[in-house]
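Re: export button greyed out
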Amino acid sequence: MGRVQGLLTDLYELTMAAGYFQAGKAGQRATFELSLRRLPAHRSYVLAAGLEQAIEYLLELKFTPEGIEYLKGLPVFSRAPAAFFDCLREFRFTGDVWAVEEGTPLFAGEPVLRVSAPLLEAQIPETFLLSTMTFQTLIATKASRMVEAAGGRGVIEFGTRRAHTPQAGTLGARAAYIGGCIGTSNVEAGYRFHIPVFGTAAHSWTLAFDSEAEAFARLQELLGENTVYLVDTYELETGVENAAAVEGSFWGIRLDSGDFLAESRVARRILDRAGCRQARIMASGDLNEHRIAELTAAGAPIDCFGVGTELATSADAPSMGSIYKLVEIERKGRLRGAAKFSPDKSTLPGAKQIFRFRDHDVVGLAEENFPGATPLLVPVMHAGARLGERIPLGQIRQQAQRRLAEIPSACRRLEDPAAFPVLLSERLQALAAEVRSAELKTLDSKRA
Amino acid sequence: MGRVQGLLTDLYELTMAAGYFQAGKAGQRATFELSLRRLPAHRSYVLAAGLEQAIEYLLELKFTPEGIEYLKGLPVFSRAPAAFFDCLREFRFTGDVWAVEEGTPLFAGEPVLRVSAPLLEAQIPETFLLSTMTFQTLIATKASRMVEAAGGRGVIEFGTRRAHTPQAGTLGARAAYIGGCIGTSNVEAGYRFHIPVFGTAAHSWTLAFDSEAEAFARLQELLGENTVYLVDTYELETGVENAAAVEGSFWGIRLDSGDFLAESRVARRILDRAGCRQARIMASGDLNEHRIAELTAAGAPIDCFGVGTELATSADAPSMGSIYKLVEIERKGRLRGAAKFSPDKSTLPGAKQIFRFRDHDVVGLAEENFPGATPLLVPVMHAGARLGERIPLGQIRQQAQRRLAEIPSACRRLEDPAAFPVLLSERLQALAAEVRSAELKTLDSKRA
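Workaround output, generated via the alternate export path:
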């Protein structure tokens, strides 16, 4: 995260910061919520991920002297008071953060993160928080669908080359692991996040030797029982025969193209005849949850799926409508609900909490209490410092599997999934009506 | 780029590297090409981008001591010779690179980058190069479609919050600028790449004041003639009236939701009646090239489009089938063509060049020469060092506009675009046949 600094945000966060400063509002207490306005296409839940990177960002957020000089030179800052730039020089995030733990399924309309801080500090992080949390949530969700489809067979994340930058590949690998993948091909992700890493050889390996048999023998020499032979560089049958003929144990073979159902059966037969019953078959190439489900349903003798493009880009739903909105602001010494009521993009005022029951959620005000329900937002930062220990990724992953199993299976269906009921508490609805009516009065008084 | 290191790659690149080392092949000269197997969905061209980041990566690529220790501890490396890790410790890229300049339109099947280096050095960068170049190419292409649709109106990149990580937002802003956007909201991108930055205030600004009128007045105080009023926090008409009523000059207003055609007309009428004929109208929110084209065709009085989600994720085509394949390898002292001939994923052998004619391209061997054609791949690195100066981004952008204008307009159509003919030279076809026939002989001799 070393290179990330205050400039990695939208310009308007910084012009607004300057404006709040100039208007004497920079220190006014404000609460913003990051919530899921719309779920990604084809989904009835998302699996929350990315909180750890959000916390790291808030802990490290600062403005470098060069960054501040750059801002001073921009025309939009030509009228900004000099003291504003001093304020940026001293900037650090001192707020409180509540959030839903990573690996928790969430539904449309629910808040995932709540920031309470002086207005200037709460505004600037909007862009970064939206991007880092939404992206990992998309990938963790996509992974969970593939893992569901694989019905107990392993799914490995192979998509860094297709990710939207290599850095996205690394964080995507982390999210995919949370979503239930058994590992990744991304070594940096393995190193940084202690994720199991997979992979042995590409077609270029086979091409670099005088024959496929030689290429395979050399691979086995190096990798021993971890060897996976990629058998389709030239011809499937010959490839599998060459693999089975190498001396020494091996993990299995990989099919990277073609009709996986037919080819896995052919490969299985050749392996079994050659006495390699223990050898596993991995399939990779243009897979998604639907293809995986078909292959699984057809009983394809595939032990493990490697998925790249579709997972690393969440190809059928590469974005979702997450928002970061002001929900409370200090006015005349106390926090008041704030909301936006334009016809197609309304928001709900007030600091909120999700109360999870077995078969529905209630979104209510943070101070409410519903017996029998689990409140999902928990405090993760106080006064700019992290609360508690970093949760190990393996533990987040296990928690995700457990919490996913707790939502109705109809919500996890790949096609046409059922919605999970999310209700609004009476007090939240009352606050929304109250704030709305105050706004209408203001508008009316202006028209008069 | 400081944090990027050798581990940011797929594991198999490193296991193959170890294998090449062990087999005495690490220093064998090899050529790999990064090429466009399939264009992104709905496209008949792509606009090449990302080369600068590819070069920076190759210049900086190294393995840290901690990274090497991590590798040593992985089971797949338990048999790797100790000297391999010494080799990683000393690793630097010493190869030659030819590439198509950024801002050049390319077509299906064409190579965009060619790496010639000792086998080990050419193999390891595969994952990073594919990801960084493919991503920027996708975004530059998407941007060029929106700019085409806008017919001379400005298009501004607003998508960092929707990008697949904030870092992808920054590089996406760079690519969007190459594709013809007039600027970005991403301040880090403005700082690093000297891209014009845009943006003034969000809904939260308006909500943070007691009235919209006060919020607008305070914004104008700060931003003067650069002020853009976001007018739809409460109600469009009142919002535009409040904007027009503020003392002092301003840039214009922004519509962020609703029916842009109807609303831009209403807003224009209110602005004109209030004597603000110079005030511009910007629209942002759920725009893509098709919506922009509709609004432009309908004569909507919109001066400028802000685009986020669809651009930052290349939403209708979030990936494309780019590949990085071995095309030549040293055998018995000389470079020989290498290729893969499996039924659905064949590659062509030999170091290649694209020869661009006015109305078609020829992909031929690098040493060929076609009078009247421009060879598109140019040398950009030699012996691990950059050749020539870094091209300023503004110059790349201008070049992109010029080169896009040179391809037939039918190829730039938003719907059902025409293909640009790409032919293979006779010598390339002959080499492919020759390599194929040699492979078949090898396979036959194995069967015998």
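The domain at 25-55+95-124+326-447 of chain A is CATH 3.20.140.10 (nicotinate phosphoribosyltransferase). The button fix ships in the next patch.
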